[in-house]
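User: Hi! I have a protein structure encoded as tokens and I'd like to know what sequence might fold into it. I'm fairly new to this, so please keep things simple.
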């Protein structure tokens, strides 16, 4: 292990040999004009972070304990510094890797870029990252790897003990994402087999005690007790250095949080001293809507909003736009970042002095009785509200404007959020565990147990998909193939069926398109033009077939950005579709799936979709005349989303891809089907419901 620097002592500008002169002298560092700091200040900045004082302690604990739990306020340097400390201390020597997981893709990219910049190396070399469908690392040189927790789970399918890694830091553990929870359960198992592996569980606000209890591992043999690290987890809390944040509540509940957001931002800009504003909304749609509204207000009231730089922040934002978020605000300007939950703890933005908190976020909810999962705009917890407010006190005392009443905060807001595991459909989770050879899923050691009903539902659907057999084991080859494809099992099943139906070329295009957020430009310009543009591609069969038309057009245009612009298509999203499709092509070929096109026969495409998504079948309730559908399985009321090409067309039988819930349950991406295909695709799933699944 290398020597540690003493806290508080300034590090020499040119680093000593042992730390590797490469760190700051590499060509990429000195020639990088976009770098936000010269190399003198890199070290100073690093040393100013709260975790720096604990560098020695952290390295000591990791050395001596199998698990170290680190709690520290957002922005204290956990994510960007700890992996570097570990590397400096030799944990990446001998070709081993240091992993740091994040629940969010965008955070993975942003943090990896930042660490590479601090180390003065090119991203993808010493510091790399992997997110689904994007791998930027070099197996020969990468020492620190950032990745989503989902990707690390997938890696376990090839390497169950994760032998490449010396230390795995599970970051943002307080988010309790479903993948984080599965990962924690599995890592606990791995620890029993690998005494050389070290875990770091880090987060902003975790219940350190309960996490520590979860990781208590009893020594089983005397022999093991004599060597290796201590098995009881160490807990370290890093004191923050946040400034005071003044909280303002609204007097009366707000009717429209987007409008209130915009007027709050404008009045801060009007009345408060300089300092950037961070706004928390729920998703791309309301972020875009609020930006549009801000621009409109700006036009009608020019003086009021001059000097504002308004930037969106949500997952799926292209890398170039991410850079703007992190770059310093020009003098005399005020940056307004309108973000999803991602800026709550995953990313730290410098210069924020004002926070506007809508009080909502988009959350996944699953009801095992109706078998419906959707994304709902739901109230946040008190813990989240405190985190959000904390973002205002990074650089100097700040202010937080909550768009809800104090009475509501005190009496109605729940203290903590519910772990995602307990509000999700578990189909993906179950198949992943099965693929890792975990047979007794109900008996698995979870940090938070999922509901038995949800578990049983998941098993039932996987059985109907032909992925699990009567003994709840993966079927061969279908089950293993489905598990191998890094997509939701229903999408994977659709791909596998398309091979038999002779339409795999088309289906992988559809699967790739369904993997990006939306290929359409959100609400830009006149709505009517956009609808007309959509009509040019619209297929009477539904959205999935429409995607095929768009894809064809994009290829014919020579993948032109102008063509996308003209047709209200998101060029970045289309490029992503091409990229993902290429990866799916490779994966399916590896699985021995023959790629074949059905040319114009869209019936087989619809059958393939049915083979994967039969559980999402719905029938029009014609007598209501308002476009109401009911799900075949659970008789739930649902409607076609206005963005669908089948909106107002209302075919009798359809299958949807996903649901979003606002005032109603809306189906996004729908395709018309013939009900007889349901019985063909999943006889056991529909046999008790035959009376429903016959055309009236
Ligand atoms: O993980 P934690 O919230 O404890 O902090 P961090 O993400 O490691 O951030 C440490 C510092 O790096 C903060 O001062 C951030 O502002 C800065 N940072 C940055 O400027 N750009 C990034 N992309 C990430 C972090
Ligand atoms: Mg962090």
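Assistant: Happy to help. Inverse folding works backwards from shape to sequence: for each of the 696 positions I chose a residue that suits the local structure. Here it is:
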């Amino acid at each position: 292990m290398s020597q540690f620097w003493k806290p508080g002592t300034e590090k020499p500008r040119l680093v000593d040999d042992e730390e590797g002169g490469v760190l700051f002298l590499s060509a990429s560092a000195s020639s990088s004009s976009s770098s936000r700091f010269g190399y003198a200040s890199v070290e100073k900045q690093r040393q100013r972070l709260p975790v720096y004082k604990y560098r020695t302690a952290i390295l000591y604990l990791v050395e001596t304990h199998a698990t170290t739990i680190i709690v520290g306020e957002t922005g204290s340097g956990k994510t960007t510094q700890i992996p570097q400390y570990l590397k400096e201390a030799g944990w990446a020597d001998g070709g081993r890797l240091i992993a740091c997981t994040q629940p969010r893709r965008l955070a993975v990219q942003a943090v990896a870029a930042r660490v590479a910049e601090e180390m003065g190396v090119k991203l993808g070399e010493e510091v790399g990252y992997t997110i689904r469908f994007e791998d930027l690392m070099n197996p020969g040189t990468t020492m620190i790897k950032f990745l989503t927790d989902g990707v690390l789970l997938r890696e376990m399918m090839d390497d169950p003990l994760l032998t490449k890694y010396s230390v795995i830091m599970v970051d943002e553990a307080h988010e309790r994402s479903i993948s984080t929870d599965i990962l924690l359960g599995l890592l606990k198992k791995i620890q029993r087999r690998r005494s050389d592996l070290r875990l770091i569980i880090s987060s902003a606000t975790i219940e350190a005690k309960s996490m520590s209890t979860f990781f208590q591992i009893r020594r089983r043999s005397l022999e093991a007790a004599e060597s290796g690290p201590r098995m009881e987890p160490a807990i370290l809390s890093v004191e923050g250095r946040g400034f005071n944040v003044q909280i303002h509540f609204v007097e009366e509940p707000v009717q429209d949080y987007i409008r209130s957001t915009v007027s709050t931002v404008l009045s801060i800009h009007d009345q408060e001293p300089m300092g950037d504003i961070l706004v928390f909304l729920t998703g791309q749609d309301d972020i875009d809507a609020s930006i549009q509204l801000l621009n409109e207000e700006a036009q009608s009231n020019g003086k009021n909003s001059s000097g504002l730089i308004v930037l969106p922040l949500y997952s799926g934002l292209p890398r170039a736009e991410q850079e703007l978020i992190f770059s310093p605000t020009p003098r005399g300007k005020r940056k307004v970042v309108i973000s999803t939950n991602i800026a709550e703890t995953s990313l730290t933005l410098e210069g924020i002095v004002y926070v506007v908190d809508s009080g909502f976020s988009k959350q996944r909810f699953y009801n095992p009785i109706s078998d419906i999962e959707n994304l709902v705009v739901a109230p946040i917890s008190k813990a989240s509200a405190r985190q959000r407010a904390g973002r205002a006190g990074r650089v100097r005392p700040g202010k937080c404007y909550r768009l809800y009443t104090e009475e509501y905060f005190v009496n109605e807001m729940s203290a903590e959020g519910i772990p995602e595991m307990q509000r999700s459909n578990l189909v993906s989770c179950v198949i992943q565990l099965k693929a890792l050879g975990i047979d007794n899923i109900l008996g698995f050691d979870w940090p938070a147990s999922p509901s038995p009903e949800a578990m049983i539902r998941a098993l039932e659907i996987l059985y109907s998909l032909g992925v699990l057999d009567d003994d709840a084991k993966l079927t061969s080859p279908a089950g293993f193939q489905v598990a191998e494809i890094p997509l939701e099992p229903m999408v994977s099943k659709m791909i596998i069926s398309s091979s038999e139906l002779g339409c795999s070329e088309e289906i992988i295009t559809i699967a790739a398109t369904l993997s990006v957020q939306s290929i359409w430009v959100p609400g830009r310009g006149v709505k009517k033009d956009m609808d007309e543009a959509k009509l040019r591609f619209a297929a009477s069969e539904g959205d999935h077939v429409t995607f095929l038309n768009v894809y064809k057009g994009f290829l014919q245009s020579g993948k032109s950005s102008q063509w996308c612009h003209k047709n209200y298509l998101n060029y970045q999203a289309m490029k992503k579709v091409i990229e993902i499709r290429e990866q799916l092509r490779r994966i399916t070929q590896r699985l021995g799936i023959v790629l074949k096109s059905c040319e114009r026969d869209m019936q087989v495409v619809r059958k393939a979709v049915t083979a994967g998504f039969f559980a999402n079948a719905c029938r029009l309730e014609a007598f209501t005349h308002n476009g109401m559908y009911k799900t075949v399985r659970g008789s739930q009321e649902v409607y076609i989303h206005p963005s669908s090409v089948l909106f107002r067309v209302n075919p009798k039988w359809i299958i949807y891809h996903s649901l979003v819930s606002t005032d109603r349950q809306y189906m996004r991406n729908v395709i018309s089907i013939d009900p007889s295909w349901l019985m063909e695709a999943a006889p056991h799933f529909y046999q008790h419901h035959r009376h429903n699944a016959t055309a009236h």
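A useful reference point when you look it over: The pocket of magnesium ion (ligand 2) is lined by residues 78-79, 171 (CB under 6 Å). Feel free to ask if any position seems puzzling.
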